[in-house]
């Protein structure tokens, strides 16, 4: 049978954050099976999946009920669509169930198939609404540097990471970026979290005023920034930002693709951080990653405007073939039933301290600059010099070394730009499994520290 070695030269599809040189020399890690919070490679090695795949598999990798729900739905009604006044019953039921757990005021669900599509849809929605209310010049969109909102032309423009822009000719016109609320890295010496949050809100206001408030339609933000470095905002940040947005009639779009469905210990990160979104996008854990599905939620006010404008135009001009796909909807519905039956949010809140305290216990490890997180998402930001907040040379690959050393020990974690080691395990993880994950990651840090010293990187 085929081995990893023989697969090495095959054309794998590329993906953001693929290290192409390592892919060429070492080949990919080929995963063949899932078992609870573990995945198993083709050689039979088991890994504790500290990232739930790609922040996705909330219910782990072997939940029979999700597989059975998909199978039953395939027998019952494998496909239907939401075009021209039709809808699959199961999609309508999922929409209703999502509204039942969504932040207050969000009452309508538009389904798509990926986080990028949901955010792309939210950009188009903001433009459409501005036209509908006779303000066609109100079209600029603001997001934050280091944000990750996807890779399509619009969502890639929202993304605030260099790899999504550069040679891709993005961001497109009308997409602007403001500061990232990363206190440890960017606050002035001695600046409190509150003063820092105030300053960032003032900077946002300055940007809106400089551009002209009549030209700014929407602000996009992840409650906790994921791929940009697991950045937890100061407690007062969103409150201050929203004051500015309200003042200039700028829509607040919460990108809950990572935080949504329990990551922070509540159903949505918006609930954790006091965000009152006009629009909310979600994906990933909505189906525990089993099938692709995403959604955009809006309130009655926006929905009525859409309805009126569409009536004027004769049709609503946006939607995908697979929007609300019945099999995906059946999996989403079963996911939410399991959340309720097992009181999964209470479980997350119960085990989260094991992760958070475990990460912070190594805050003074010589490689760690800051340990941070909330709920079941966390990170170590590595630093060459903690007090001076000095990073390692990105080319040295220190973070990648930690990931490699963890993988050797049967733990999957991820390195984000800036040598940030991210943790985002399945929500079903038990306390003893979290301790095991942390122990393996700590051993990986120690080994990497030896390697850093041996290579004269400090
Ligand atoms: N928003 C956030 C916060 C994300 O983390 C991601 C994906 N990691 C996306 C949007 C894009 O989702 P997708 O890859 O499904 O297009």
TrEMBL record:
Q: Does the keyword Cell cycle apply?
A: no
Q: Which InterPro entries match?
A: Aminotrans_3 (IPR005814), Aminotrans_3_PPA_site (IPR049704), PyrdxlP-dep_Trfase (IPR015424), PyrdxlP-dep_Trfase_major (IPR015421), PyrdxlP-dep_Trfase_small (IPR015422)
GO BP, one annotated term? biotin biosynthetic process
Which enzyme type, at the first EC level?
A: transferase
Q: What is its EC number?
A: 2.6.1.96
Q: Which cofactor does it need?
A: pyridoxal 5'-phosphate
Q: Which family does it belong to?
A: Belongs to the class-III pyridoxal-phosphate-dependent aminotransferase family.
What protein name is recorded for this chain? 4-aminobutyrate--pyruvate transaminase
Q: Which organism is it from?
A: Quisquiliibacterium transsilvanicum
């Amino acid at each position: 049978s085929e081995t990893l070695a023989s697969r090495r030269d095959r054309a794998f599809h590329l993906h953001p954050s693929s290290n192409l040189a390592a892919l060429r020399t070492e080949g990919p890690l080929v995963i063949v099976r899932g078992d609870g919070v573990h995945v198993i490679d083709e050689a039979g090695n088991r890994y504790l999946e500290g990232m739930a795949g790609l922040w996705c598999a909330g219910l782990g990798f072997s939940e029979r009920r999700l597989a059975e729900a998909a199978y039953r739905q395939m027998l019952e009604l494998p496909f239907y669509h939401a075009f021209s006044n039709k809808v699959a019953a199961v999609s309508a039921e999922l929409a209703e169930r999502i509204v039942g757990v969504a932040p207050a005021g969000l009452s309508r669900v538009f389904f798509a198939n990926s986080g990028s599509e949901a955010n792309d849809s939210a950009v188009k929605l903001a433009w459409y609404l501005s036209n509908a209310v006779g303000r066609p010049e109100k079209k600029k969109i603001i997001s934050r540097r280091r944000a990750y909102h996807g890779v399509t032309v619009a969502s890639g423009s929202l993304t605030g990471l260099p790899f999504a822009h550069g040679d891709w000719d993005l961001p497109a016109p009308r997409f602007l970026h403001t500061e990232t609320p990363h206190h440890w890295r960017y606050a002035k010496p001695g600046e409190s979290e509150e003063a820092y949050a105030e300053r960032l809100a003032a900077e946002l206001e300055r940007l809106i005023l400089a551009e002209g408030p009549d030209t700014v339609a929407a602000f996009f933000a992840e409650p906790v920034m994921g791929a940009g470095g697991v950045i937890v905002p100061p407690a007062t940040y969103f409150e201050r930002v929203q004051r500015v947005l309200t003042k200039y009639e700028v829509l607040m779009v919460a990108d809950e693709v990572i935080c949504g469905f329990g990551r922070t210990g509540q159903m949505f990160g918006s609930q954790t951080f006091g965000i009152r979104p006009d629009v909310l996008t979600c994906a990933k854990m909505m189906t525990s990653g089993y099938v692709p599905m995403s959604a955009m939620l809006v309130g009655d006010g926006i929905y009525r405007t859409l309805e009126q404008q569409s009536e004027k135009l004769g049709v609503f001009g946006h939607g995908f073939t697979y929007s609300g796909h019945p099999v995906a909807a059946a999996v989403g519905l079963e996911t939410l039933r399991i959340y309720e039956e097992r009181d999964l949010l209470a479980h997350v809140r119960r085990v989260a301290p094991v992760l958070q305290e475990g990460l912070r216990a190594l805050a003074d490890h010589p490689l760690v600059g800051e340990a941070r997180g909330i709920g079941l998402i966390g990170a170590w930001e590595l630093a060459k010099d903690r007090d001076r907040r000095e990073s390692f040379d990105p080319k040295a690959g220190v973070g990648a070394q930690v990931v490699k050393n963890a993988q050797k020990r049967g733990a999957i974690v991820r390195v984000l730009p800036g040598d940030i080691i991210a943790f985002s395990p399945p929500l079903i993880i038990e306390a003893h499994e979290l301790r095991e994950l942390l122990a393996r990651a700590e051993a990986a840090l120690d080994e990497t520290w030896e390697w850093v010293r041996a290579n004269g990187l400090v």
